[in-house]
């Protein structure tokens, strides 16, 4: 009985979205479940997928809050 936890920042994937949409979540659940079936032969009905959305203020990257890190990345020359 696999349990997969997916953590994402709470922000939209497209302008106007402020979080992951229900359709995007459904696609993640379907895709992860299918991958476990294909690779490990784990039946769909035995696979659990949990999606956790985390506010960006609670997400760190490179030793900084994610928003500050992204600002630094944007300022770096390509």
Overall residue-averaged pLDDT value: 94
Element order, helices and strands? EHEEEH
CATH superfamily: Macrophage Migration Inhibitory Factor
What is the gyration radius calculated from CA atoms?
A: 16 Å
Physical arrangement of strands within the biggest beta sheet: 1-2
Fraction of helical residues = 25-40%
Shape type: elongated
Distance between the termini: 45 Å
Which stretches of 5+ consecutive residues score pLDDT under 50? none
Counting DSSP E segments of at least 2 residues, the number of strands comes to 4
Characterize the largest beta sheet: strand count, sense, and whether it forms a barrel. Answer: 2 strands, parallel
Q: Helical segment tally?
A: 2
**Structural domain count:** 1
Structural class estimated from helices and strands? alpha+beta
CATH level 3 topology: Macrophage Migration Inhibitory Factor
- Strand proportion, as a percent range, falls in 15-25%
CATH classification, class level: Alpha Beta
Write the layout of secondary structure elements.
Layout: E1 3-9, H1 22-40, E2 48-54, E3 60-61, E4 64-65, H2 66-75
Parallel strand pairs: 1-2
Antiparallel strand pairs: 3-4
3D structure, described in words:
It is a single chain. This protein is α+β, with helices and mostly antiparallel strands and 78 residues long. It has one domain: Macrophage Migration Inhibitory Factor, CATH 3.30.429.10. Helix content is 37%, strand content 23%. It has two helices and four strands. A two-stranded parallel sheet has the order 1-2. A two-stranded antiparallel ribbon has the order 3-4. Helix 1 links the parallel strand 1 (3-9) and strand 2 (48-54). The longest helix is centred in the middle third of the chain and has 19 residues, at 22-40. It is elongated and about 45 Å long.
